[in-house]
Amino acid sequence: MKNAQGEPGVESPRKLAQRLQLPFSDILLLTRALTHRSYVNEHPEALEDNERLEFLGDAVLDFLVGAWLYNRFPEMPEGNLTRLRSALVRTEQLAEFASKLNLGEAIFLGRGEVEAGGRQRLALLCATFEALIGAMYLDAGFEAVRSFIDPLLEPAARQILSGHKDKDPKSLLQEWAQSQGQGTPIYRTIAASGPDHAKVFEVEVHINGEIFGLGMGYSKQAAAKVAARNALEALGVHL
User: What does the longest C-alpha to C-alpha distance in the chain come to?
Assistant: First the structure.
């Protein structure tokens, strides 16, 4: 493979399927799941990028993770289930799954994306994992996807619960502000830098006109969460 030129990964789709024991009968579908739009932009012969599969995989994950939580935690209230599901399907967690599976080395990327560190970029790894799930669902169905993700969910859920990572920092900061008689936190994007495929946003959180925290991320939402988390740490409020 031409990894040195910043194109396909060092592991072919077929070898990835063999290593991870993925139940693919259509290897072209798996190839599409691993194809980033930056590769298609540089290679017109490539049929399609993975964005539609990413959309499908996102929906499949929401359902299957919700069903897994419902059965795994029969006494957990609905609100707690919702927060835990959000934590399990958030960008950082899905990117961690992708990293554990070493998906980054199998992604088809354009040269510019490779040079920008795309194989390690959280948003890109998350999107590829979702696309993989979408492709697996189309090729082999719900049960195949369930068998694939269930072993990943148990240790991740334990880690999230033990570290209280299911608590949303933006919600906690709003609760703190209300308890202190302060105004509602306001998030302002103050900067956006980098190329379109790897843009970094910088967000401030203000309460009553005062800056309480600053955060950076590959999306405005991610940067806002970091800003809220930093504000809570500065205030001494534990997550």
Answer: 60
Whole-angstrom CA distances from 142 to 38, 84, 94, 139 are: 29, 21, 18, 10
Taking CA atoms, 23 is separated from 18, 88, 120, in Å, by 9, 23, 26
Helix (H) or strand (E) holding 56: helix 51-72
Per-residue pLDDT reduced to its tens digit, 55-90? 999 999 999 999 999 999 999 999 889 989 988 998
pLDDT digits (tens, 9 = 90+) for 8-63: 667 899 999 999 999 899 999 999 999 999 999 888 887 799 999 999 999 999 99
Please tell me which residue in 58, 96, 202, 204 is annotated as part of the active site: 58
Q: Is 105 a catalytic residue?
A: no
Q: Please give the model's pTM, rounded to 2 decimal places.
A: 0.75
* b/e code 3-16 from CB counts within 10 Å (16+ = b): eeebbbbebbbeeb
What domains are defined for the chain? 3-162 (1.10.1520.10), 169-235 (3.30.160.20)
Read off φ and ψ for residue 185, nearest 5 degrees.
-60, 140
DSSP 184: P
Q: Is 7 a catalytic residue?
A: no
How is residue 35 annotated by DSSP? B
Out of 11, 54, 96, 130, which one is annotated catalytic? 130
Number of H helices, E strands in the chain: 11, 3
